[in-house]
Amino acid sequence: MTRSLVLTADDAGTDPDADREIAALLAGSPLTAVGVVTADPEAGRASWPANGWENPGAARAVRLIAASAPAVAPGVHVVLPAPGPDGGLDDVVDRITAQLDALTRATTAAGAPAPDRLDSHQGTLYGLLGRSYLAEAIGLCAARGLAFRLPRSLDLYGDDDPVLALPDVRSRHASAVAAADDAGVRMPQVIATHRGSDAEALDYTTLRDHYLRLLERLPEGTSEIFLHPAPDTARLRELSSGWWRKRTWELRLLGDPVFTREIERQGIDLVSRW
Asked: Is 119 helix (H, G, I), strand (E, B) or coil?
C-alpha cells in the first residue's frame, strides 16, 4: 500500500511572524505545501467588490516562501463573505478568479511557481453553512488546470460531525467528486486537521496524539493534513482568541521529532501536491 501526504500550512499572508515561520518550515520540516490568503480576510462582507480588497500580506508571504522554498507552488486559500440574506453570490467565479490572479501576480513577481490549487477558508466554497459553490470552483479549476481541496472521502475530516453525516450533504459531496473526476480535477483522498479550539485541543501532548492517530488512519493514495502554525505573539493572542494556543502547538508539532519519526515509521511519503 502506498500512502502519500501533503502537509499544508494554511492562512499564510495574514500574519508576518507566522509567514516567516511557515517559510522556514517549508525549508526544514515535514511541511510540504502552503495556502495563501490573497483577499483581505477582515473584509468578509457580502458588499465587498468582486475584485476583492486585496490582502497586502500575500505578496510578502510569497516572497518569503520563494526565498526559502523556491520549488513550492502556493495554493489559493479562497476567502468569501458569509452567505447573505439572498442565499449566496452570483459573481463567485469573478471573486475566486480575482484571488487566483492576485496570487499569480505575486508569484510572478517573486519568481515562484504559479498557484496550483484552490482551497477554501472556513469552508465557504463547500456550502456547509449556506449556498454551495462547488460547481463554480470545479469549473474554474478545470479551466485553469488547478487541483481542488475536495476530499474524495469524508472520513477523518467528518469524524463525529453531524452535518457531514447528513444524507443530502453526502449526496452533494458524491456528485461533486464525480463532477471533478469528469473534469479531470485532482483531489486528495482525504483531508484532516484538528477542527476544535484551544479548549478542545486541551494541551500540546493531546494535540500531538491527535495528529499521530491521523497518520495511522491515512488511506492508500494521496491525502492532506492541514494546520495553522504560528508563533506566540501579542498579535496572535488578540486576533485568534480561543485558538492561538493550538496554532502555537501546531508550529511546535512540525518541529517535533516524535511526529517526524512517526511519518517515517509508517512509510508515508511526503509530497507537495495531490
From this structure: strand
